[in-house]
Amino acid sequence: MDIKNVIISRENISADDMPADGEKFQDKTNFITLPMLEFRKIRSMEVKEALEKITNSRYDYCIFLSSNSVDIFFEMIKEEKEHVEILRKLSAMKIIVIGPKTKYTLKKLGFESQVADYHNNNYSIIGINNFLHGLDAEIRKRHQTRPLRILIPRSAQSIKSNNYINSTFENIELDQVFFYDSIAIRNAFISSSWKKMIEVSSYAGKTFLIFTSPSAVRSFFKIMYQLSPQLYENKTERDIIYDLRIYKVISIGPATSRELMDKNIDYLESSIHTVKGTLDLVFNSSPR
Fold first, then answer.
1. Which of 36, 139, 151, 225 has the least C-beta neighbours within 10 A?
2. What is the pTM of this model?
3. Any idea what the CATH number is for the domain that residue 156 is in?
């Protein structure tokens, strides 16, 4: 079995991220997990109003699009004077999540949730859109007079990532509120993982680079330009991929794929939009 170097744009992966048959590949796999992003909470009037609406039972649903959004959202609630009441009212709402990892994160916090497009394994913004349009149609059939009110705590990067929901709904009032922003980590030069990343072109075996979000794509190249300015100053992102001798770039889903496409980078997209799906593609797909 050939040696595989698997670089993933995430600080760590867990046993749950491994495919069912992943163990048989581990001895021949060199994993490099990259810390990519720092998160900054946004304490805006919009955030304050959204939390007040939860307290006043104004929302019917809350939708989470990542584990990060869950962690930051609950951290910000705990900072509020009325945090006990906010959590109590939140527990009475229906909670929808983009995928299994986000569902697991909420479960650890004591909240049950429903994966938006579970039956189609569509753990992406497309799955969320499908859920919203289906819910809109369902309300229309019921001739419900009051629209459903839905909160989505979001990253400000959703605008740059082209996954902000611009759809309009007849029976849904959708509040997409920026609770946080993300930036590329500022201390990559002291990270042992990033030092390995810089040297990856000298490694034996095929190297796969997995991107788990559009912001991770942007941050990866920003960090690479910062770490090796003399080497990459006049080179494109595609040139960097070539210089690193990356065999395949793997995208976790449609929004990430669009970001790679914009940078003229060839990629394979996982059909199941999870880390496990990307690793399954690395270990089991035939070369294309």
1. 225
2. 0.90
3. 3.40.50.10090
